[in-house]
Each structure stands twice: as structure tokens, then as C-alpha cells.
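Q: Hi! Curious about what NADH dehydrogenase [ubiquinone] 1 alpha subcomplex assembly factor 4 looks like structurally. Here's the sequence.
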Amino acid sequence: MGGRVTRAFRNFNVENRARREISKEKPTPAPRHRTARLDAMADSPEIKEEVLRKDDQFLNLLKDVYVESRDPPVRVKDGGGEHLPSKQEEKRLTKLGHFEALDVKKVPKGKISLVEALTLLNNHKLQPQTWTAEKIAAEYSLELKEVNSLLEFFIPFTVLEFPKDTKKAIPRQNQKKLT
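A: Let's find out. The predicted structure is below.
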């Protein structure tokens, strides 16, 4: 409702107001800076003569100047070739599990792929006496400190199934069928 009222006032007598504004006398422009006037004066013959005239005093001073130029030493920026490896990293083949299609084939030494991490965590969880931190570090070329941190802070998920005969389970006869 308010938009209609304001639109009506805004559009009221628009053509007459526009004609009145257009027919007004134009204001005089602000005075220009004097550098703009110098551009117009550049065509005058006195200025051209002054520019083309040689000054012997300045020429003598210019002849006394001797400039010796040398290139600065070339600096090589580090990280200029970010897409190229700066040094050749030693890589190892991965120990592929059941997910060969999802895993990468080569990883740098000291790192493991996601499938390898899940595999070694699961092996340690199932057989902690066999898969100790020292054996995992040797097997996957990792540092012992990192392996200990990995085994301490990352635990693979376990699926627990509760027996259906518990008191917390919902009996079958009380369940409603959705229609």
C-alpha cells in the first residue's frame, strides 16, 4: 500500500518537472586550473622557441657527468617453482589392503595413506601383542613417537549389536505399523 502512494507522488507531473529542469539556464563552469591553460598556450611560437633553444651552460654541465652502470646480482626466489618438487622425495609402495582401487600406489617415506592408517589401527586393535608400535613404525617407515600418538588418539569405530532380549528393547507386539 505504501509503495503505491509513494510511486504516485514520485510520478506526479513528471513531464512538466523534467521540461522545467531542462529549460533552465546552464550554470557557468568552475574555473580551470592554470596547468590546463598552459596546454592551450603550448602552441604559441614563443614557447616552442624556448623549448628548442639550447643552453650552453647546461650542455657543459651535462658533458661533465659520467654514469657507470652495473646490473645488480641476480636473486633466485625460493618457491618460484611451486609446481615442481624442490628435492627428490624417497617414496615407498603402499601395503594395499582390500581397498586397492581407493588407495594411492606410492607415498613418501614417513607418511601413510588413509587406507594404510585404517588398516594398521584395526590390526593393532584386533591383535595388540602382534602389532606393537615398534613393529608398525618399522613396517610403514614411520617415527615411533608419531605411531604412539596415532595409536593413542585415533581409535577405529566399532559396531556394537545389543541383544534383542534385553529390557530396553522394544517388544514386537507394541510396535505400530506405518501405513
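A: A fun detail: The first strand starts at residue 91 and ends at 93.
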